[in-house]
Structure formats: structure tokens, C-alpha cells
Specification:
single chain; about 100 residues; alpha+beta; 5-stranded antiparallel sheet; about 40% helix
């Protein structure tokens, strides 16, 4: 999936499945026999689409979706948010706000 397509359909709380290229991601893919190594959450903030995910060697990160997708060399799958998030999309933003407040300290 390319960024322009994702932007057209993504809602806060939707997810993408990623096949990372790091050592841990490769081990996960080999052990599971899948092309996917982890999941990331999508959210809209100030008109921009962002991805929140755990990245090996980095930890938790929030990056613009355009930047993250352009760096991906593997397969990216899109999925709608779980029902509990669809029913309360602001729950994702509350978590993001807590994270942002924490790193601002």
C-alpha cells in the first residue's frame, strides 16, 4: 500500500502490519513463517497522518506515516481499528497525549 492510498482510507486507531528489516523483525518472521513482524497504530494529528509503533533499538516512536511508509521495503497491510477503538477513537488520542506529555518533560 502506498501512502496516498492509505491517507484516503485511514482513521485514527486503524492499524498497519509491517515486515521490519531489523534483526529481531527477521527472527520473528522466520519463527512465525510470516512476512509480518509487528503492528503499528495510525492516528490523525493536526491534519497529518502518523504511525505509533515499537521499533527495535529505538523503543516507542511516533513518526509521520509518509516517512515511515517510504522507509519500508517490505509488505504493509492495512486493517481497520478494533471495534472498541472505533466506538471511542478519542481513546487513542488520550494515550498519544500522555506519551507526548511524558517526552516533553
Amino acid at each position: 500500500m502506498i501512502y496516498s492510498d492509505l491517507r484516503e482510507i485511514a482513521k485514527t486507531g486503524d492499524i498497519i502490519l509491517l515486515g521490519g528489516t531489523g534483526v529481531v523483525s527477521r527472527i520473528i518472521r522466520v519463527l512465525t513463517g510470516q512476512s509480518i513482524s509487528h503492528v503499528a497504530a495510525l492516528f490523525w494529528l493536526d491534519g497529518g497522518l502518523f504511525i505509533a509503533e515499537m521499533v527495535e533499538g529505538v523503543g516507542y516512536q511516533i513518526v509521520p506515516a509518509s516517512q515511515r511508509l517510504s522507509a519500508m521495503k517490505g509488505i504493509v497491510y492495512f486493517g481497520q481499528a478494533p471495534k472498541v477503538v472505533q466506538d471511542d477513537p478519542d481513546s487513542i488520542m488520550r494515550v498519544i497525549s500522555l506519551y507526548r506529555a511524558d517526552i516533553a518533560k
